[in-house]
Task: inverse folding
């Protein structure tokens, strides 16, 4: 799918370049109309795909909530591996179908909470999950993007899961001292291989990484 999208984007770019590089007014107008139509069609396809996924997620949540997941099925295995209360897990799954747009102000509020925290909290978790699912829904989400059980602000495993999903083309590093050292953990995050990152410190490794991630998302959003 990504190869096809790249090919389509290339064709649209070539059509626009040809339209402005000396083609006759009639041909230029046709090429620009074609480019606009292709862009619109691709956008509509992505919207339909995302909505179909969300509808499927809503159905899965209903099955979980009604305890109708067949043992041995992918959904049944997922519920078993989560080892969670079906109602709580259904609520978690439903968050995937939400994904309201996140503003820079939302990111800054979360950053303030992370930077003033001495440890993870449920409040940070809820904000982070909302932002995570918003980012995922801007792409082509799959069931593999559902967060595993656990607290993102307390569990390094869940934190790194979030980083690996959001930073698909990026990178992250974490530095941590020994138990008797006084230095705080240091996290750095980049959305692309070439993106620089300001190191962020926090009382715990998950909070250090989350602070770096949120800062990078803020800087990226401001640059759009």
Result:
């Amino acid at each position: 799918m990504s190869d096809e999208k790249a090919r389509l984007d290339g064709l649209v770019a070539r059509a626009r370049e040809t339209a402005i590089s000396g083609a006759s007014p009639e041909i230029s107008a046709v090429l620009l109309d074609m480019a606009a139509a292709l862009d619109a069609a691709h956008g509509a396809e992505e919207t339909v795909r995302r909505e179909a996924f969300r509808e499927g997620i809503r159905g899965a949540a209903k099955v979980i909530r009604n305890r109708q997941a067949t043992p041995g099925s992918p959904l049944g295995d997922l519920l078993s591996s989560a080892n969670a209360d079906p109602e709580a897990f259904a609520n978690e799954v439903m968050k995937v179908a939400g994904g309201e747009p996140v503003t820079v102000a939302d990111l800054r509020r979360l950053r303030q909470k992370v930077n003033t925290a001495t440890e993870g909290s449920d409040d940070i978790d809820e904000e982070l999950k909302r932002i995570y699912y918003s980012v995922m829904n801007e792409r082509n989400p799959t069931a593999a993007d559902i967060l595993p059980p656990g607290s993102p602000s307390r569990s390094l495993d869940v934190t790194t899961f979030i980083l690996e999903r959001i930073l698909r083309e990026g990178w992250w590093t974490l530095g941590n001292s020994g138990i008797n050292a006084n230095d705080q953990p240091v996290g750095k995050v980049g959305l692309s291989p070439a993106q620089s990152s300001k190191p962020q410190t926090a009382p715990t490794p998950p909070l250090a990484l989350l602070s770096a991630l949120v800062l990078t998302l803020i800087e990226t959003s401001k640059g759009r």
The longest strand covers residues 171-175. The chain has two domains: 2-96, 98-222. The chain is about 60% helix and 5% strand.
